[in-house]
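User: I'm curious what two different proteins look like when written out as structure tokens. Can you demonstrate?

Assistant: Sure. I'll show them one after the other, since each token string lines up with its own sequence. Here's the first protein:
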Amino acid sequence: MRKFLFLAFLLVIFIPSIAVGQASLTGYGSVNHIAFKSIPKIPAPNQLIQLSVESYSTNLNKMMIVWYLDGEEIESGYGVKSIQFRTGETGTKQIVKVLIKKLGNVIMEKTHYISPADVNIIFESDTYTPPFYRGKTLPSHQTRVKIIAIPNFIDSNNKKVDQDNIMYSWRINGWFNQDQSGVGKNVYIYDGPLVSRPVEVEVTAEDIDSNLVAKKTETLYLIEPEIIFYEKNPIYGTIFERAISDKANLNGVEIEISGAPYFFDISNTQNINFRWSADGNEVSNGVEKSIVLRRTDGNPGNIEIGLEIENFDKILQYTKSNFSLFYEEIFDLDFSF
């Protein structure tokens, strides 16, 4: 009987306290029961973003929600769970505060900080372009591409963060590459495969000493190599500033034509084969970048000049092109050679 009374006494004491404990799990007064969600997850500078608040313990649709941005109220109302605004410049810091109210009383509040940073991606290739070429070398099939991340991180002291203090995470077509990721690894080496398709490159850069983070995604397109024809002058050399398109004129007795293998990998020149043809007949030994064309008489006419360039080591690096060479009737010239 005494044991029963003692047990009843314990139940009377502990049952109310268990009920109070359950009541405290409703989330009132606790910031741990609300969370922010940002779209995009990693905002860039001067970007329009959507910031939402979520709770798994409280029905926010019935709550008065008040939003502040840098101390100024920008939105409020029942069930207003998201706002849109534009981020600041690189190096700025925005403070977003949300208050959850019920019956006029603040039951939850939380603060979110946004410090936008930026990172860019550039592609570099060792493919061929002639001297003084004004454009950039472009990656073609089966070539090696150097992918470089250039971060623009400004810390709280308004100083630029050293890129060697940043951790880089690289993904190629969605696959994370652990070997080429890490602190200070802002360069990724990509070797083009045999099957060439557009390549999605993603890098996430994070300052190891702060919460600065940025993400960038670019698409790498591998192009077809091409041939550009130029006249090679015996005095001035190859005239790169004047390309031959679909036709050229032979005004004298002979002309030398050079074929430039744009965007080929020529790291091993022994693997590059040049096959010149005249009206479909092969007229070269496969190693000469240029060909000399000489008239045998003064009669007018034209001839089709073709060139095929092939990299024996990389089968996708192949292209061909041609142009028409016209020559008018001329007199009193020596055609002997």
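Here's a second, unrelated protein for contrast:
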Amino acid sequence: MNSKQQKNPFMESDLTHDSPSTRVSNNQNTNQNKNKIKPVYTYINTQQPHLDKNTKEIDKLEIVTHKVDEIRDTLNDNVNKFIDRDESINQLYDKSNTIKKQGEIFEIGAGQVKKKMWWKNMKTWGIIICVLLIIIGVIVGISVWSYKS
């Protein structure tokens, strides 16, 4: 086991130090492991006061390493959130383009339906006017025929 893969005494679980690109791809694992990390200062404060100077320096180094790991995890989380937002923005852009195209098609179809209904309305009015003219003609014809007889 190399030094990077040794169990960290400040962690409750076995975490390995991955490369940042691996951590970015393992966002869920990072979030799960993040919740299991014990604060380092709590661990150090509970230690016996008879620690020698060298041990305290190692503990300080571990604190710094732990803080760097936390910062890297936070950075990876932020990168993942940025990527997710970028993907959702691209999806929204695609959806808005689709809706725009559908709106243009709807507008063309609505214009065609409007013209078709206008012509249908004109035909209906034409038939009504013709029927009225025929009725008026029949009435005038009957009145003229009855007047002559």
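A detail about the second structure: DSSP finds four helices and no strands in the chain.
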